[in-house]
Amino acid sequence: MDKKDKDSKGQAAIDVRQEARTSRRGFLRKAIVTGVAVTATAGLAKKTSDLLLKEDCQKAYLDDVLPGDKVLAARSYVVMTKEEKDALVERMIQFHKNPEA
Amino acid sequence: MLRTDGGNVSEITDKDKSNEQAGPEGNSRREFLSKAAKGTVAAAAVAGAGALLANSDTAEAKASWGEWFQKNYRLMTDEEKKESIARLEKRYTEEFGKKTTVDGTPAQEGVLFGYALNIQKCIGCRRCVHACVKENNQSRDNPEIQWIRVLKMEKGNFLAENMDKGYPDPVGIQVGGNAYQNAGVTLEGEHYYEPEQVPEKGHFYLPMQCMQCEKPPCVKVCPVRTTYREPDGIVVIDYNWCIGCRMCVSACPYWARRFNWGEPNLPKEEMNPNTHYLGNRPRMKGVTEKCTFCMQRTRQGRYTACVEVCPVGARKFGNLLDPESEVRKVLEKKRVFRLKAELNTYPKFFYFID
């Protein structure tokens, strides 16, 4: 194979690549590949973060509930007098009749 | 060199140009792609809208669409409430594989529910806790959400001889006998106690649940007004309107609200199909829930599940507006106290001792 022939074949290959880069088909291919890559990366990142940052529902639930136990248990409770009870019932009946009060 | 071969490039450009300038038949690639894209978008839009609006057979698709766009339950017309309830009934029936009813019974006139609990009688068996979980379709696992928790407390200063002593004399008497001493102490997590036998020596039990306050702080802080007080005194939540901000959880002075951190785990076979829209219907992730005095029962004239199941009759329930009701009798005759009465939340859940 002489040098000239070799050069022209090489040039043809370069041309094909150049065309692929600059043509619409090339652009679309790149866009699709990039899209797929971005989607796959995002999906993988989400899965990974979901796994790593997965909430421990049981712990979160207990964190909500348990602080109250201590606080409520460590209080003193005062028994109501007769007057207080009567006043309370009266007020509740009033609230019921007039909720805006 | 690449650039030196401008002929090829210009040739392609010319070809493209000639394509673009193709006649009115529009045979260029660009036009084809444009048409194809438009066609796809149009087809997808039609298919999507069709699935959402028209003849989707799955109850869930319909329910999702309807639920996302429904109003706050309080603002719905009767017609809209009926539609919403029918939608949910269909969805739950399909989802749980059993005929499920969603009740929408409103509060009855002349009723204000109140609750009283005898802490001297309570033996800490926690049957109420489990009956509540079953009745109200709470998440069963990871976590098991419990609306009632029973605090196990060491008796400490809770002595019978001290009950009539202590500060403040003219206002009331101290359960512990002294204003500066606690009624008892509990250990962290002690409401999950698993004793062989109850009651345990040297302990008493303090069951806790939503106090259904007349002036509920949780209602005041809700930014979307999804939680509100019904005329019969029950504080309810429209789960579909809840945005999961947890403001109410923080505001409740009794730690009575529960948040669904994860998707609730409610096995089909354990689901209670008799539900109320504002009560025990299945909840979703990211919403708050709490005791509703079993409104699916009480608005039909039944007792709450916890009252029914209590083996020692420590729990009393009734209409505060009726002077002959059990709860009014308790208020009249027994020594009663409330939790955090100083906050003026007017809880309708009373504790009493004989």
Secondary-structure map:
The complex is a heterodimer of chains A (101) and B (354).
Chain A: H1 3-22, H2 24-52, H3 57-73, E1 78-80, H4 82-97
Chain B: H1 6-20, H2 29-53, H3 59-68, H4 78-96, E1 101-103, E2 113-118, H5 127-135, E3 149-154, E4 172-174, E5 203-208, H6 217-221, E6 227-229, E7 235-237, H7 247-251, E8 258-259, E9 274-276, E10 288-289, H8 295-298, H9 305-309, E11 315-319, H10 326-333, E12 335-337, E13 349-353
Parallel strand pairs in B: 1-9, 2-13
Antiparallel strand pairs in B: 2-11, 3-5, 6-7, 8-10, 12-13
Helix pairs in contact in B: 3-4
Architecture overview:
Chain A has 4 helices and 1 strand, in the order αααβα. Chain A is an all-alpha fold and 101 residues long. Chain A has one domain. In chain A, helix 1 packs across helix 2 (24-52). Chain A is rod-shaped and about 120 Å long. The mean pLDDT of chain A is 83. With 354 residues, chain B is α+β, with helices and mostly antiparallel strands. Chain B folds into 2 domains: 6-52; 113-353, Alpha-Beta Plaits. Chain B is 30% helix and 14% strand. Chain B contains 10 helices and 13 strands. Chain B has helices spanning 6-20, 29-53, 59-68, 78-96, 127-135, 217-221, 247-251, 295-298, 305-309, 326-333; strands at residues 101-103, 113-118, 149-154, 172-174, 203-208, 227-229, 235-237, 258-259, 274-276, 288-289, 315-319, 335-337, 349-353. In chain B, the strands form 5 sheets. In chain B, strands 11-2-13-12 form a 4-stranded mixed sheet, covered by helices on one side. Chain B has a two-stranded parallel ribbon with strand order 1-9. A two-stranded antiparallel ribbon of chain B has the order 3-5. In chain B, helix 3 runs antiparallel to helix 4 (78-96). The radius of gyration of chain B is 30 Å and the shape is elongated. Mean pLDDT of chain B is 82; it is low at 1-23 and 166-189. Chains A and B meet through helix 1, helix 3, strand 1 and helix 4 of A and helix 1, strand 3, strand 4, strand 8 and helix 10 of B.
